[in-house]
Sequence to fold (310 residues):
Amino acid sequence: MRIIRDYQFTKAQDRGASAAIGNFDGVHLGHQSVIDLARRAAPDAPLGVLTFEPHPREYFAPDSSPFRLMSPDARASRLAKMGVKRLYELNFNAALASLSPEEFVRNVICDGLGLAHVVVGADFCFGKGRAGTANDLVHFGAELGFGVTIATLLERAEATVSSTAIRTALSEARPRDAAAMLGHWHRIEGQVIGGEQRGRELGYPTANMSIDGLHPPAFGVYAVLVDVLDGPHAGSYHGAASMGVRPMFGENRPNLETFLFDFSGDLYGATLSVGLVDFLRPEERFDSLDALIAQMDADCTRARVILGAL
Fold:
């Protein structure tokens, strides 16, 4: 998959794609259906996705609480697995935000990227002040010579599949409900960073990962599926993970600490993808380290049973 970040300097080989347009945070089932429409709309064209970085919500409200379901790298990885060949990850800045709907279409879609076909959701808005609608895009497409498909919103169990609904499920400790809308386990992907090695001292060495910038799922302990994406220990593992601030040890920055079952080795610097399968219990403070260790033993036993049944 090729990643193109500047629409003003697009190479000839990257033009002519059939592209789905949107933010694609989480790459949920609704996003997947839009991408599949782009694939079927022009099967002889390269399959593309047009998105923006930073997320426009981050650009317009930089002080808002973290809301993203995945990092840009994780999104790119997921899109590549879906067969996307051209990821137009455009820099969302003042110049792009100031384009009128017509300027966005002419400058970006037509002259810049040369897209042959675009697919958007029925609620798609674009241009300065979100003034352009999906129907406006159809009008521009007919005028300027590119195809447009409007995808209907996907519903599942009488609820619209959306990033907002997925965030709600994760906040309410319902990772399986989130997975039903995502079409895959909700995963947190990132590099293993150094910690205070308390887990090692307790007999449970963990791989520590930052969740900065991401929507935080409910704090607590989870049964998880872990993919080590690089390094000498690359592979898939079962495990248990703690999400939160570690209340036994004072006030700490939220992070994710994952214990891999039946594993021995150094993971510092490796990139992990941790899939949340089941919520085991909330985060809590224990009266002693012995009580904490006993609970960790029970957590891991329960997680092994759950993951062994998948």
